[in-house]
Write a structure and sequence with these properties.
alpha+beta; 3 helices
């Protein structure tokens, strides 16, 4: 089962918590145990799992990714978003989450994030649910 979800980013670089989409998908599809694959089909965005307890972690990660792939005008790509392509490659386009008891298995402070690097935009992502 593959489910498509729509989200809207509001900043050029932003981390959007998408836990609720995964939890809702599990509840609607009645998946108790298995695997969820979360995939981003965009070359200027990504999917990651990281801390949800302190919002400064998200700010720090966005700062780090900007340092690793800064927004330069000297890039040759005509759209002016080469930095976003770099950040997307650093983060990756998917995550896999184990499902048990109808819930995703996350560490105490973990959450699932859609990472926007070329916003604001209307985006989509997919969740593939594979039940036992």
């Amino acid at each position: 089962m593959v489910l498509e979800f729509q989200i809207t980013s509001h900043k050029r670089n932003e981390m959007i918590n998408i836990d609720e989409f995964l939890i809702r998908a599990l509840e609607e599809q009645k998946i108790e145990s298995g695997i969820a694959l979360i995939f981003c089909p965009h070359t200027t965005a990504g999917i990651t799992i990281n801390e949800n307890g302190d919002p400064d972690v998200q700010r720090d990660l966005l700062y780090l990714w900007e340092k690793l792939s800064p927004h330069y005008q000297e890039y040759r790509h005509f759209e002016g978003n080469s930095d976003a392509h770099g950040k997307s490659s650093i983060i990756g386009c998917s995550e896999t989450v184990i499902i048990a008891g109808g819930r995703p298995i996350f560490g105490t402070w973990q959450s699932l994030y859609f990472c926007e690097f070329d916003g604001p935009r209307h985006r989509k992502f997919y969740i593939k649910l594979m039940g036992d």
